[in-house]
Amino acid sequence: MVNxxxxxxxxxxxxxxxxxxxxxxxxxxxxxxxxxxxxxxxxGKTNILDAIYYLSFCKSYFNxxxxxxxxxxxxxxxxxxxxxxxxxxxxxxxxxxxxGEKKLFRFSDKEYTKLSEHIGKVPxxxxxxxxxRLIIGGSESRRRFVDSVISQADSIYLxxxxxxxxxxxxxxxxxxxYSFGTMPTNCDSxxxxxxxxxxxxxxxxxxxxxxxxxxxxxxxxxYNYISSKKEKVSLSYKTNVYQQTFASxxxxxxxxxxxxxxxxxxxxxxxLNMSMEGYEIKKQASQGQQKSFLLALKLAxxxxxxxxxxxxxxxxxxxxxxxxxxxxxSQLINLVGTERFGQVFITDTQQGRVEExxxxxxxxxxxxxxxxxxxxxx
Length: 378
What we know:
11 helices; 22% strand
């Protein structure tokens, strides 16, 4: 595991928001350790975290359409983040969008030509109730999780995933056209896209396999820490891609693909098997155990990125205390409050619970009360 005092510290010192979701205007100063936002549901606590997430990934964690992030009745939104980076440098990242126009993302007032160039510059891990889909949802959520983790540490991997998905989209488009009879079947055209799927698919397969070897021990460590070793858990990689047979499998699946009108073989079908005591977690585990499993996945993501980049990611914990018993809550806060972690942001509906958590600790923290009237530091 990571040495608690090692690694370069990065943090966001100031966040300015204009017309982002239900936050008309805010100008917030943060501490380097734990920052807590407390208030009733629906007042905007999660939107603050989502704005910080936006500055790392050039998109919202919750809204697919960027225009949906503009406050009701307004014509634009703007997010400005001021960061204290590694090696004492200071950087300014901003995201903005006007209705009817494309979004703009800037680094030190210079606009990016490709948003993918930004991914990984401000490493970040977010945990929200929506992440339950990693446990109980379909394989797409788990593939997206794996791809997101690796991409923050490896820009070449991100390029390969983008190229693979473009080839997959083109092949599936051809398969649909053949099926609808809008064009005659052309095997040469399918061969072109199959070659792309083979080329990038093998690179993705090898990287995912390598990733899981590094990631699984980190995950097991954090689950054991949170649960006090009450249950044995494991992760494994499920795929229909194998180095020696991938090419022949793609070719032999062509007739089936033509019938079904989509590609049935490839890394876009991969999954992450999650088990507890040898059983599938979504079928056997309690809600508390599932929540602990999820937290362990995300904390392992934090440490994996730290080990790969040498910079502590920002950690966002949105409403994570629900369904956890007092012991697991205490274990979690005592962990993320140490120098092992960097800057942390937490939301909760109960101010008293948050105050009690920090009452008997020396952990540096700031508390913000969020209401319909605004955001006020306590």
